[in-house]
Amino acid sequence: MIKALIFDLGGVLAYNDINVLLKAYADELKIDFEKLKEVEANHHEKLIEGKISVKEFCSSVRNVFGLEQDSLTLLLVWERLYGATVEMNSELIEKIRALKKDYPMALISNIMDTTARYHQRQKLFFFFKPVLLSCRTGLVKPNVKLFARAIRELGMKGNECVFIDDNDAYFKAAKEFSIKCIKFEDNKKLYKELRKLKVKV
User: Which of 163, 151, 169, 168 is nearest to 194 (CA)?
Assistant: First the structure.
């Protein structure tokens, strides 16, 4: 019996494309998009792991492109453009609000610090405990330690949990704990798969 749900964030609760954000950033700063993608790719792993902040990344962008703006100004532009380009899955979030009454929920996500702060300000994390973010834990999916910690803090056995993610590359680690897995494609298919597991959606 499923007693708890574990959600991914990007591609499930929030639709955001790093290339869309980078294109908007390049356009606003009047810098080369392809070169900016290379700079981000060189920093991406450290950004996700929380080893460097987005402000530090912006400082690198400033140096590479010889920009006049200081790193704080560049950070504020990045944050504004993330908010403008991200699309929230409002229907699913409302469903989670209702499900929270009957099912404890965890959140596991590979995200940068600014993304975490944005969604925290939007009160998204209110529905989840624990909230395990790569930039704060230093643990990146598919690290098995994330799933071990999630079920421990939920107070559940692995086979009592279901993990929902749009990337099935992470399922192998979850299945080591007998966690059921659903690949997210859209809300309708998700609800159908949850009903198969007797989750009351």
Answer: 163
**Percent of all residues in the chain with a pLDDT value above 70, rounded to a whole number:** 100
Total H helices, total E strands in the chain: 10, 7
Say how many domains are in the chain: 2
Task: Decide: helix, strand or coil at residue 94.
Answer: helix
Residue 147 host element (H or E): helix 144-154
Final residue in a domain of this structure, among 39, 54, 85: 85
Same domain, yes or no: 72 and 164: no
* Whole-structure pTM value: 0.95
Q: How many Å from the N-terminal Cα to the C-terminal Cα in the chain?
A: 14
pLDDT of residue 142: 95
Q: How confident is the model at residue 107 (pLDDT cuts 50, 70, 90)?
A: very high
165 occurs within a structural domain: yes
Q: In the block, which residue shows the tokens 């300000």? A: 121
